[in-house]
Every structure is written in C-alpha cells, then in structure tokens.
User: Fold this.
Amino acid sequence: GEDVEQSLFLSVREGDSSVINCTYTDSSSTYLYWYKQEPGAGLQLLTYIFSNMDMKQDQRLTVLLNKKDKHLSLRIADTQTGDSAIYFCAESINRGGTASKLTFGTGTRLQVTL
Amino acid sequence: DTGVSQNPRHKITKRGQNVTFRCDPISEHNRLYWYRQTLGQGPEFLTYFQNEAQLEKSRLLSDRFSAERPKGSFSTLEIQRTEQGDSAMYLCASSAYRGGGNQPQHFGDGTRLSIL
Assistant:
C-alpha cells in the first residue's frame, strides 16, 4: 500500500544544516518529491528525484534516496529564517506505465531560530 | 506570472449550500489534479484529468463532488449540499504528461472553504 511518514517538527539555528527525513512503503515509487508550504499558501516544488538515483543536489538542497530502506531525506545547507515552513515528502507511483497522483506525508514543520 | 491560478482564494458558506471552485492550469500542461488538505495533514488526492478526460477519482470524491474540464483547459470542482466536514483547503495542480514519463506537479495557492 501507499504510506508516507515524516517526523512532525524540526528546530534548527540559522546557519546550521537541516535534515528532514521521510519513509515510504511502496516499492513501485517512481519519483519522490519535496514540496514547501508557507502559511496560507499552496505547495512550492523544491526538488524531486527519480527512483533509480541515489542523490541529487540543487544549490543549498541535497536529496538522498536509500531505496533499499525506502528512506528519503532533504538536507538544507545554511538554513535561513525564510526556510521556516512545512516540508512535504510525496511519492508518485508508476502503475500501468504512467505515474499520476501524489501521495503525501503529513509534513515536517521546520522552525529556524536566530 | 503563468503559474496555476485558483479562484476564489477563500469561500465561506452555510451548510447545505453548493459551491464551485475554478482552476486555471499552466497553459502548456495537459494534466490537471485536485487535492484536498485538512488542517495538519498533507494533501489528499481527489481526481485528475488528462486533457478533458477524467482518468481517476478517489473514493474521497463522494457523490456530492463533481469535477469537470470541458475544453481541456480550466477545471471546476463543485460541491453540492456542503457539510461541515467539507471545510478544507482545495488545491489544484497541473503537469505536462509526455507519454512514458511524468513531469512534476505544480500547485496553485488553493481555495480555502469554510462551512458555517
């Protein structure tokens, strides 16, 4: 079945690195995504990784995928106060040759303190 | 800005009324998705379209919910006889499907529905 789990809360100091973790259950996952949501707003796509990759780096963001353990992480380097938000992990599952709907975790609230 | 546009941003209505939301996707995107997000939860899939065809509906989409995308561009989501439990943020997303692979979904800012 499809289930995505995340820890609920993370607090880091400005300038430190943040690591947000996610586990998923469906081994058919094709793409795994990280979205950011600020209060009252929609979801902003941050980055995504194809399931045959181990790592993807994009400026301050590094995504690591351990397919054996079905574990995904998002590392934010030099965390800033503007990074305070809820971060959602999501999986897209390939069924019948096409990936469609996203299954989201409950989100991790990142609090950045001075 | 040519992102996903949703209207209205907020809707307050009395229980039992009908409401309709509109989503305008990114212009070159042929897939359009609706999700519902309740407080403290991640978005949950409701339905999606490829062009004008509705290809999948979640069991969350009860008989009171109907979605359309008549010309393969904008979409509407209607809720009839609203109930307290319908209070949520309704999110629309779009993506470009190019056969054999899917592009990421881009979300609008949502319509927040409050049922009195």
In short: The CA atoms of residues 17 and 101 of chain A lie 31 Å apart. Chain A has a mean pLDDT of 91. The radius of gyration of chain A is 14 Å. The interface with chain B takes residues 4, 30-31, 33, 35, 40-45, 48, 88, 90, 92, 97-107 of chain A (CB under 8 Å).
